[in-house]
Write a structure and sequence with these properties.
It contains 3 helices and 11 strands; from the N terminus they run αββββββαβββββα. The chain is of the alpha+beta class. A hairpin with a 2-residue loop joins β10 and β11.
Length: 230
């Protein structure tokens, strides 16, 4: 856990506001299959980049942001290794890291949580299939070694949404098991049209995340994506 904390603090050192757009596509070009059935979704143009305004902002933090958000590298969580990302249908994707902390904490204090947000724009029905396959992946991975995964239902945001909870045995900052309540992580996943906003509230070191924070972040992420994509 110490290595993760150091990596996050390095990622969080950027203090300049990102310019728009600073996110570019990392997905492969679309391929066409002869005889493939047309998508049921109305075709929309895929943007060349994802602007900073499409992501969570400092003002969206549940209590307060530790600093301005910064772009980052991040992998979506794996649920028993089941595939749900629809990687071959991604038009463009990007990730941002926002560190949040409690309102009463002084500037520079230990973060309350690290919040990664992945925004993915899909071709055709890719975003809808993402949500379907994600739910199936979590449902069929109720237990993954010591981790317990739960579908907690909609957060009432976007065209579709799901709150996911993961419970894992409590550990100290060195990663050693300790007696006490299990640590909880949360993911709020929202879809607006062809776009997914995947908010990962991962806590900080041995501290877990809060459900209420995650719901608020997911709701704000849905609003940001809707404002961008229309």
């Amino acid at each position: 856990m110490t290595g993760l904390a150091a990596a996050l603090l390095v990622a969080g050192c950027a203090t300049s506001e990102p310019t728009e757009p600073f996110y570019t596509s990392s997905a492969a070009p679309a391929t066409t299959t002869a005889g493939a059935a047309p998508s049921s979704s109305k075709a929309r143009s895929i943007p060349k980049a994802i602007p900073a305004s499409a992501f969570l902002q400092v003002s969206d933090a549940p209590e307060k942001a530790r600093q301005k958000p910064a772009r980052a590298d991040h992998d979506l969580p794996a649920f028993c290794g089941k595939s749900y990302e629809q990687k071959d249908r991604i038009g463009v994707r990007a990730t941002q890291l926002l560190l949040i902390q409690s309102k009463g904490e002084s500037e520079g204090s230990t973060p309350k949580s690290a919040v990664y947000e992945d925004v993915l724009v899909y071709r055709g029905d890719g975003a809808k299939e993402f949500m379907t396959d994600l739910r199936a992946a979590v449902k069929n991975c109720a237990s993954d070694e010591d981790d317990k995964n739960f579908l907690r239902g909609s957060i009432e945001a976007g065209d579709d949404s799901e709150l996911i909870e993961q419970s894992t045995p409590a550990t100290d900052d060195a990663g050693e098991p300790v007696q006490g309540q299990p640590s909880r992580l949360f993911w709020a996943v929202v879809r607006h049209a062809d776009t997914i906003a995947f908010v990962s509230n991962t806590g900080w070191e041995s501290s877990g995340a809060e459900k209420a924070d995650t719901v608020k972040l997911g709701t704000r992420a849905a609003a940001r994506v809707k404002e961008w994509r229309g």
